[in-house]
Write a structure and sequence with these properties.
single chain, mainly beta, Lipocalin, 2 domains, 8-stranded antiparallel β-barrel, 8-stranded antiparallel barrel, 18 strands, disordered N terminus, disordered C terminus
């Protein structure tokens, strides 16, 4: 079994936690599935009593950081950066009582983890055998309210754009040079997913051969113009948006760049007989 998390370390005491989802209210469950996600702060191996050298309780940095997002559609995205190297993963999860189990995009199961959650301090603990992980709810800087403008996209297109399953990258083209990205041309070594939430938050995962990267932030949609603003304050866009609701195809482009995406469809896990 390949774990979603790479963990070592000893954990000291924490706040009072709720450890059974049957006892969670709808408000508490909504907090757990907050679209901003959860930041890793500490990873421990309780058997070895050692701390992970990167996740030792200190604030996240560019060298060491991680985030886990549990979507309301039972999809998860995860990105862990250790000493500057980022490894993104995504897939589905199931929640039974206080037991949380992941199945990634390679259909590899991971878990179950026992979940402990403190809704007052926004503190989350995942534990399994000798592994223990501490997370805290990610804080997003509130974005300014956009001016009310009419949209050139239909209600059906806008609803599809913010589908919680997200969009898979299938092609990237440099229109200025007329060349197709060497990776996003159907290669199995490359994948990517963009999720545009109904709350104005976005999550993006890109994997190019063995390297991966993940971005989070906010987005605005003004008519058919899409602009992304990540957590580092970097603006991306505006992109012109075109949506084919029949083919479930999304195209976003600037004068220099054109990207094609298709509505994400998670693979079905093969059941053993």
């Amino acid at each position: 079994m390949r774990s979603v998390f790479v963990c070592t370390g000893l954990l000291v005491g924490c706040a009072t936690l709720v450890s059974a989802f049957a006892s969670l209210t709808s408000v508490q469950l909504k907090q757990l599935q907050d679209p901003a996600g959860w930041d890793y702060i500490k990873m421990s191996s309780t058997g070895m009593r050692t701390e992970h050298p990167c996740f030792d309780g200190k604030p996240p940095t560019d060298e060491c950081s991680g985030r886990l997002i549990l979507g309301i559609d039972n999809h998860f995205t995860q990105s862990v950066t250790i000493h500057g190297q980022t490894v993104p993963r995504q897939g589905t999860y199931t929640l039974t009582g206080d037991q949380l189990t992941f199945v990634d995009e390679l259909e590899t199961p991971d878990g179950p983890y026992t979940v402990e959650f403190d809704p007052k301090t926004h503190f989350l603990v995942l534990s399994m055998q000798q592994v223990r992980i501490e997370l805290t709810m990610h804080k997003v800087t509130p974005k300014p309210k956009p001016n009310k403008t009419s949209s050139t996209l239909s209600e059906e297109q806008i609803k599809l754009l913010s589908n919680p399953a997200g969009w898979s990258y299938i092609k990237m083209t440099d229109d200025g040079q007329g060349t197709t990205h060497i990776c996003y041309d159907g290669s199995p070594l490359c994948s990517g997913r963009l999720v545009l939430g109904t709350d104005g938050l976005f999550n993006q995962v890109l994997r190019i051969e063995a390297k991966g990267a993940q971005r989070h932030g906010t987005y605005t949609l003004d008519n058919d113009q899409l602009t992304l603003m990540d957590d580092q304050g970097t603006q991306d866009g505006p992109y012109t948006v075109e949506i084919d609701t029949e083919k479930k195809l999304l195209t976003i482009f600037t004068p220099q760049m054109r990207m094609e995406l298709i509505l994400y469809k998670p693979g079905k896990r093969k059941e053993s007989k």
